[in-house]
Q: What sequence folds into this?
């Protein structure tokens, strides 16, 4: 998808911009906190649920339902992000690898199917996508990574950087 989800290139002791020592330490501490504090509470909650819901089938159905909903959420989020990046690339005439494929996808989604196009803009318009994925980047054919939100400067993300 010609994207880069995060970039630690400017951080101390990074490896190809993918990981950084300081963030690895924080993730390790967070993992320890989750194992020592949060996980026992979840175990206690599950034990409480088992006592309240004598029928294990109910728990299995609820668990399976949640897993299915999370999977659907991942697929829909991926599709929304793909639509957003395709739209950004074509509408701003960005030079990326496989531009012909991107143009074809754009035409099939936005030009040839007005109902689908309206549905996508209603649910995943530029405003929502920039706010939801403010740091997603597009890799240009020159090898340069640019933030997708750069092309929508009037939209502010949900959070502030400190």
A:
């Amino acid at each position: 998808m010609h994207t880069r989800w995060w970039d630690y290139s400017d951080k101390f002791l990074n490896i190809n911009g993918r990981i950084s020592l300081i963030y690895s330490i924080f993730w390790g501490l967070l993992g320890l906190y989750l194992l020592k504090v949060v996980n026992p509470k979840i175990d206690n909650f599950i034990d409480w649920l088992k006592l309240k819901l004598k029928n294990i089938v109910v728990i299995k159905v609820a668990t399976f339902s949640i897993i299915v909903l999370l999977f659907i959420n991942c697929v829909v989020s991926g599709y929304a992000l793909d639509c957003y990046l395709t739209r950004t690339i074509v509408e701003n005439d960005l030079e990326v690898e496989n531009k012909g494929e991107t143009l074809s996808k754009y035409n099939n989604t936005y030009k040839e199917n007005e109902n689908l196009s309206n549905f996508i803009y209603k649910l995943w318009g530029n405003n929502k996508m920039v706010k939801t994925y403010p740091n997603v980047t597009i890799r240009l054919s020159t090898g340069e990574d640019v933030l997708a939100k750069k092309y929508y400067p009037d939209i502010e993300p949900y959070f502030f950087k400190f």
